[in-house]
Write a structure and sequence with these properties.
The chain is an all-alpha fold. The protein has one domain. About 70% of the residues lie in helices and about 0% in strands. The protein is built from six helices and no strands. It has helices at about 1-5, 10-25, 35-50, 55-60, 60-70, 85-100. Helix 2 (about 10-25) runs antiparallel to helix 3 (about 35-50). The longest helix is centred in the N-terminal third of the chain and has 17 residues, at about 10-25. The relative contact order is 0.13.
Length: about 100
């Protein structure tokens, strides 16, 4: 998903997210069990619909802050599904583009 986002393939990103959601549902994951995972997927889908990563930092600050703080159920697990922290990755890739 990250590669599709970086390359600007927003249609491909949407298709990948839809497939990912189906696999997650089939595995029995729920929003309540894995709120960090579902928040990341929601943010990726939001970006793919807007086709603008810069808007994410303006309109989804609170959600990004939840991921960055990583408190409670939003805590990052390096041994889990998120090998690279989403909040760190998105900031490193796209805030440099915003300031350029």
């Amino acid at each position: 998903m990250f590669l599709k986002l970086e390359s600007g393939d927003f249609d491909g990103l949407q298709q990948t997210i839809v497939q990912c959601r189906k696999k997650i549902a089939f595995a029995g994951y729920t929003r309540r069990m894995h709120p960090r995972l579902f928040l990341i997927i929601d943010l990726l889908m939001w970006i793919s619909r807007k086709e603008d990563t810069g808007a994410l930092f303006l309109h989804k600050k609170d959600e990004l802050q939840l991921l960055e703080n990583g408190a409670g159920e939003y805590q990052w697990n390096p041994g889990g599904y998120e090998v690279v922290r989403f909040d760190t990755w998105i900031k490193s890739k796209f805030t440099t583009r915003l300031s350029a």
